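Technical annex, item 7. During the second reporting period the consortium partners agreed on a shared format for inverse folding records so that results from different sites could be compared directly. Each record opens with the tokenized structure and is followed by the designed sequence. A conforming record, contributed by the partner at site C, is shown below for reference.
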């Protein structure tokens, strides 16, 4: 890399080239024909003009180079084809390495009529799209010092004219495309480092590379046409009528065939795979021309007989040539090459609705398979076990088609034994290099296809099938990479990293293979938790694959097909798939991707139909089973769901038909009760897919009682216990901390992750040798987000010393109301799980504690015992007892069990399964409803565009994914001006419409505090101000104190969603136009308008004008932030005034609401080292004051206008120094904020002047048209108004007309007119400028009785200025 010029001509400086500083022109500029400028040109100082000059220089250089190349080539004759030449990279061929083409393609295919679980019967022609790692060629030694750059390759196309079979004319043309293949060593190149200035700009640092990874050596494959040769010598003969098709194929179709290979070695696949075959293989040429015609027809939407004729003519010619070659029994490699092309190239072109006749791809492949065997390619592939033997390219391509095609046909692959041998010897077949998915993963997909074929043929029993599925799953586990393998496929420079892309694509194929394998399990459905988890992981992995027209979605047809066909209607995968189709644009309609999207849309449509059908079933159930819902909209299923009529009927019949006694007795009725209870206990375990040998069920009153039982056992251990709980925990989980010796609240998922990995460095998480308990909810009862269930097994398997003797407690009450919980693998479950059955079934009011038996011994330390839990108790003379040991539940269930509630639970389990099928079905139904409700609330806007709902959704959750989000929505409402709407008002209006929801703190203190941004000091302030659970003080200090929650359940339907959205739109969405609002505002006085609003945050300092388009809060004390601060003397504590300290006029504060700051700037002269501005937090956080509760200091009284107040001074030394330096006296900033209850220790002192009393006895203004309790009355005695640091009243208002009249009178007395700023008014009212002259009304405000701000806030007009 040459040193760039700093003193040469400005042209070389712009090109960042070394300049020899020759006069009048440097040598470089002279050679390239550029203008050499040593005087600073005009374009140098303007960035935009510099860019234009760069482009101009690029164009000149390109023209110069092309001219030189043309001169070197010499004249061409019609009979002699021109020699192929290389041209250097120019601005036209290479300007930005991130802007190069990344062609998209597909990787598998099937027909329009394809059904996932049956063999396709179709006539359309399909195949599989390649996915290949892009090769990088090793540059010749003399060029290795330069970064790789594209070269232009000229493809000569010859045309031969015949008349009566006699050649009469032969001419040729050249098509040019770019390639990264270097020229041969003997090629003549211009001085690359001197003239390729664009390249040098791109690769400024020595560490920059084109791909950032070692590329593929293209000699890796054994080609049927021999080793790679010089592509510049390609000569392709076509008839005149087919020239345009060949050009189109070379220019537009070739780049689609091997997309990943194109990324790594631009043009290599074309020049080394396709072009040689086009030269030597006539069958292959006709195949490519047919493909070109199909692509031309699809992309340009041609509908003509000519294009169809071209397609069919070349298709027929291909088949004819193949048949002729087969009859000759020669050229088998060329026949195979053409046959594979007929299958493979179809993946990139054509639309699903193309109805031209064709031979199905699998029939073509039968012929290809025969040729593969005849050429003994499988044997050659098996021999590929060292670097010296290369895999046959045609065999690699055939293997890809064979393996994925077998999964579509339900058959075993043709060469399955070959793949099995390759898998056992761990040798490559070139599949990864060709298509991007690791070879061993493809071998395993072949094994799964074999297993499916056995299942379809019914030649394997279920037991053996499950054994093979387990073995294959284990084999796939061995292919899993380590953590962190999935990464962005783009390098920091924006280039694709081929190896990382291959890893990401392999991960997609691996997950799709797992889904494919799980689908073979007898009885497997898309609703199985394991299937849902795999689909979710597939969607997450898909995010690592670049999308869009230059992405690689079309290379993932097989994984997308497998995942989409087994996804649930509410899965994230379907939503993401639809998004990526949108990003792909028109290219999503072509080739295998287009053919795959057709059945996928059918599957998605069937999912919508399934949802609609299930919703219709729920409508029928509601009519018959839930009569209490008639006319009601119930949206509080997170509190409790509703019980059906059948449950109450069956429970009543059960109670009347059976005699049930106390299970602690030995009577027949008691034995019946005992048997029924144990049966129910077993049914509860089955609900969770839990085995009785690993789990026990302890019946309790509810989930809270189960939590308390665990807490008592841990508390009674000798050394107590350490307790950690998640921020989203229910109050019942939080309360356990009071019994713990040590406790810690994890404020985020990230903190839990850091704790599990041993990276958490905060104090309090370090557990000593005592027992530990980590507790968290499976689903937040506040906003419905679902937390990771994997924390429990991860903590159990941790080898960290800190995690020994650690156990987990899961609150599953909220989750189980609408989602299943699978305890099939006891090693991955929590130690203790609590649940409430009334949240699942509505009745009975009963709960359970599910205990993992391996952890059950911990409960034995619980000291309390009740009736039925002991074998013997001694009370007289000796005090001892013996616990029951036969089972854990006998030891822990105190007293007589709630027999009738447990019997009711038996009925509830039966009725629930009969009505709703399964919890998974409920999960899918409620997830779909929640998504539509969430979308509806999120889309609501006021007429000014402001949002209506502030929805509290965790960033890690999505309403598209039932694994991360439950059917619960927590939100608050804002009006059109952004002010909070009272939740109490929402609840009252909802009650009028018979809508049942919940608002408030929801027994989730951590979730509420984090969502609403409530700091502990703010919660203490709210408590002092009177906030209590259930109180109506739901907006305090400018923040809500709770939320509104709506939640859906099994019997919710679409009408519930629609009704609630209509209710929200009717009452809380403001549809009024701006004109209507202005008309309402003009009722105050039609001739007047507000000219300006000004506040004076710091008493006696400068004012700050509120921006005209900014809404501002009005409080009882006046405008928000007005005269809330003052400067007090540090000795006397008296407030400073501008009269004594005139420099205060140069102190001008402003309010920065975006950053929650009071900014104070001094506009006078300051010392060089002194700051001109300081910032003060607007927050009322007590920690910023010198008298906060931890300081031990008491607040000092101060004097303001003769009143004694308690103002809180700031503790910051920087604040005190700033003001002391400016004013030259020891002072500091103090704050006198409005009190929490809206009261103040200062009140207004203004009173009516005598002339005002006269005017108001004979008012000229009408009486209040809207009398209300809060409006002023006719009593002239002013009310006691709370004020902050203003002199007399909350708001000072002046009239522009009055000021103008005053200035006229001052001028008559030869005085100087005064501005409105002199009066330090908050509101300046002006008369409508459109009013005719001469009708101004100066001093009209003297007759006004009150001023109304908004619909409900009134200020009585007091203390107006006296007449002059």
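Designed sequence (site C submission):
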């Amino acid at each position: 890399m040459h040193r760039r010029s700093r003193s040469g001509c400005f042209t070389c400086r712009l090109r960042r080239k070394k300049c020899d500083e020759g006069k009048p022109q440097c040598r470089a500029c002279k050679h390239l024909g550029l203008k050499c400028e040593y005087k600073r040109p005009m374009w140098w100082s303007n960035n935009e003009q510099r860019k234009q000059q760069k482009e101009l220089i690029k164009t000149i250089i390109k023209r110069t180079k092309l001219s030189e190349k043309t001169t070197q080539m010499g004249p061409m004759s019609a009979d002699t084809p021109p020699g192929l030449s290389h041209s250097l990279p120019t601005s036209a061929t290479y300007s930005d390495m991130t802007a190069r083409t990344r062609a998209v393609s597909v990787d598998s295919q099937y027909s329009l009529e394809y059904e996932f679980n049956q063999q396709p019967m179709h006539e359309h022609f399909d195949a599989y799209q390649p996915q290949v790692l892009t090769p990088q060629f090793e540059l010749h030694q003399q060029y290795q010092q330069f970064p790789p750059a594209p070269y232009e390759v000229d493809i000569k196309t010859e045309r031969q004219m015949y008349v009566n079979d006699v050649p009469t004319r032969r001419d040729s043309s050249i098509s040019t495309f770019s390639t990264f293949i270097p020229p041969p060593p003997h090629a003549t190149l211009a001085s690359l480092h001197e003239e390729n200035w664009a390249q040098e700009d791109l690769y400024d640092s020595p560490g920059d590379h084109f791909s950032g990874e070692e590329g593929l050596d293209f000699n890796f494959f054994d080609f049927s046409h021999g080793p790679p040769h010089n592509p510049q010598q390609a000569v392709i003969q076509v008839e005149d009528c087919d020239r345009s098709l060949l050009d189109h194929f070379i220019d537009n179709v070739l780049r689609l065939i091997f997309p990943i290979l194109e990324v790594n070695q631009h043009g290599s696949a074309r020049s080394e795979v396709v072009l040689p075959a086009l030269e030597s293989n006539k069958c292959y040429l006709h195949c490519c021309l047919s493909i070109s015609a199909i692509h031309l027809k699809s992309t340009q939407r041609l509908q003509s007989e000519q294009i169809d004729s071209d397609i069919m003519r070349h298709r027929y010619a291909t088949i004819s040539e193949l048949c002729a070659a087969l009859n000759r029994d020669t050229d088998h490699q060329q026949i195979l090459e053409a046959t594979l092309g007929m299958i493979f190239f179809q993946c990139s072109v054509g639309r699903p609705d193309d109805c031209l006749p064709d031979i199905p791809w699998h029939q073509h492949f039968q012929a290809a398979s025969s040729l593969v065997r005849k050429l003994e390619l499988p044997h050659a592939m098996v021999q590929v076990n060292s670097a010296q033997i290369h895999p046959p390219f045609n065999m690699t391509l055939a293997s890809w088609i064979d393996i994925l095609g077998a999964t579509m046909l339900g058959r075993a692959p043709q060469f399955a034994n070959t793949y099995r041998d390759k898998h056992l010897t761990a040798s490559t077949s070139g599949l990864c290099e060709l298509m991007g998915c690791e070879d061993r993963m493809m071998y395993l997909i072949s094994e799964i296809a074999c297993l499916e074929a056995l299942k379809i043929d019914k030649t394997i029993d279920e037991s053996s099938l499950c054994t093979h599925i387990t073995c294959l799953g284990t084999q796939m586990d061995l292919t899993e990479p380590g953590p962190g393998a999935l990464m962005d496929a783009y390098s920091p420079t924006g280039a694709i990293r081929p190896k990382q892309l291959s890893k990401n694509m392999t991960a997609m194929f691996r997950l799709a293979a797992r889904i494919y394998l799980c689908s073979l399990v007898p009885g497997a459905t898309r609703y199985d938790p394991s299937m849902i988890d795999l689909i979710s992981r597939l969607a997450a992995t898909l995010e690592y694959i670049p999308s869009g027209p230059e992405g690689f979605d079309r290379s993932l047809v097989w994984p997308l097909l497998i995942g989409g066909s087994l996804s649930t209607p509410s899965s994230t995968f379907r939503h993401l798939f639809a998004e990526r189709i949108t990003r792909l644009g028109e290219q999503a309609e072509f080739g295998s991707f287009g053919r795959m999207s057709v059945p996928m849309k059918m599957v998605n449509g069937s999912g919508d139909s399934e949802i609609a059908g299930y919703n219709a079933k729920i409508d029928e159930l509601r009519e018959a089973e839930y009569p209490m819902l008639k006319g009601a909209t119930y949206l509080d299923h997170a509190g409790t769901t509703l019980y059906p009529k059948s449950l109450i009927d069956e429970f009543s019949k059960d109670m009347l038909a059976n005699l049930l006694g106390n299970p602690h007795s030995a009577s027949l009725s008691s034995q019946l009760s005992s048997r029924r209870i144990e049966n129910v206990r077993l049914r509860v375990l089955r609900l969770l897919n839990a085995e009785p040998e690993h789990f026990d069920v302890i019946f309790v009153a509810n989930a809270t009682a189960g939590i308390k039982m665990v807490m008592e056992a841990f508390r009674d251990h000798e050394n107590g216990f350490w307790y950690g709980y998640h921020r989203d925990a229910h109050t019942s989980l939080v309360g356990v901390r009071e019994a713990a010796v040590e406790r810690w609240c994890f404020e985020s998922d990230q903190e839990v992750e850091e704790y599990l990995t041993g990276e958490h460095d905060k104090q309090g998480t370090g557990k000593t040798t005592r027992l530990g308990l980590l507790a968290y909810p499976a689903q937040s009862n506040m906003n419905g987000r679902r937390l990771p269930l994997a924390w429990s097994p991860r903590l159990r398997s941790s080898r960290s010393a800190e995690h020994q003797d650690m156990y987990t407690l899961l609150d599953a009450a909220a989750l189980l109301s609408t989602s299943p919980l699978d305890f099939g693998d006891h090693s991955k479950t929590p130690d203790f799980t609590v649940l409430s059955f009334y949240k699942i079934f509505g009745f009975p009011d009963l709960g359970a504690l599910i205990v993992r038996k391996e952890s059950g011994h911990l409960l034995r330390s619980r000291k309390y015992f009740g009736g039925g839990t002991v074998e013997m108790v001694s009370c007289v003379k000796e005090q001892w007892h013996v616990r029951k040991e036969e089972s854990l539940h006998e030891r822990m269930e105190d007293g007589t069990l709630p027999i009738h509630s447990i019997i009711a639970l038996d009925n509830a389990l039966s009725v629930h399964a009969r009505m709703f099928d399964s919890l998974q079905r409920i999960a899918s139904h409620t997830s779909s409803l929640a998504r539509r409700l969430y979308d509806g609330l999120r889309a609501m806007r006021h007429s000014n565009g402001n949002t209506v709902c502030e929805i509290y959704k965790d960033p890690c959750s999505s309403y598209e994914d039932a694994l991360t989000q439950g059917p619960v929505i927590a939100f608050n409402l804002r009006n059109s001006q952004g002010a909070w709407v009272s939740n109490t008002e929402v609840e009252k209006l909802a009650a009028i419409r018979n809508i049942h929801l919940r608002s408030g703190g929801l027994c989730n203190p951590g979730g509420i505090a984090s969502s609403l941004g409530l700091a502990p000091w703010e919660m203490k302030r709210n408590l002092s101000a009177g906030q209590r659970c259930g109180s109506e003080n739901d907006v305090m200090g400018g923040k809500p104190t709770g939320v509104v929650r709506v939640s859906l359940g099994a019997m919710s339907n679409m009408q519930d969603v629609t009704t609630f959205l209509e209710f929200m739109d009717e009452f809380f969405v403001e549809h009024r136009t701006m004109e209507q609002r202005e008309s309402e505002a003009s009722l105050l006085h039609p001739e007047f308008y507000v000219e300006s609003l000004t506040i004076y945050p710091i008493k006696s300092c400068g004012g700050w004008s509120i921006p005209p388009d900014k809404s501002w809060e009005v409080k009882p004390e006046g405008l928000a932030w007005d005269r809330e601060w003052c400067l007090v003397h540090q000795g006397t504590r008296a407030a400073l005034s501008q009269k004594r300290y005139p420099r205060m006029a140069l102190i001008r504060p402003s309010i920065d609401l975006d950053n929650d700051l009071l900014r104070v700037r001094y506009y006078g002269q300051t010392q060089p080292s002194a700051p001109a501005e300081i910032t003060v937090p607007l927050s009322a956080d007590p920690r910023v004051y010198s008298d906060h509760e931890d300081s031990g200091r008491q607040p000092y009284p101060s004097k303001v206008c003769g009143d004694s107040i308690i103002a809180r001074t700031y503790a910051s030394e920087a604040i005190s120094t700033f003001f002391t330096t400016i004013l030259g006296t020891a002072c500091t900033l103090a704050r006198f904020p409005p009190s929490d209850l809206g009261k103040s220790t200062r009140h207004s002192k203004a009173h009516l002047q005598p002339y005002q009393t006269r005017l108001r006895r004979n008012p000229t203004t009408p009486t209040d048209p809207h009398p209300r309790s809060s409006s002023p009355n006719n009593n002239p005695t002013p009310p006691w108004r709370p004020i902050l640091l203003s002199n007399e009243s909350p708001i000072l208002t002046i009239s522009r007309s009055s000021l103008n009249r005053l200035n006229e009178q001052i001028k008559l007395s030869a005085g100087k007119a005064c501005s409105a700023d002199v009066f330090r008014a908050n509101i300046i009212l002006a008369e409508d400028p459109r009013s005719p002259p001469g009708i101004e009304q100066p001093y009209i405000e003297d007759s006004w009785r009150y001023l109304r701000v908004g619909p409900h806030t009134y200020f009585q007009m007091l203390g107006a200025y006296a007449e002059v």
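The chain has a mean pLDDT of 78. The CA atoms of residues 643 and 842 lie 4 Å apart. All partners now use this format for quarterly exchanges.
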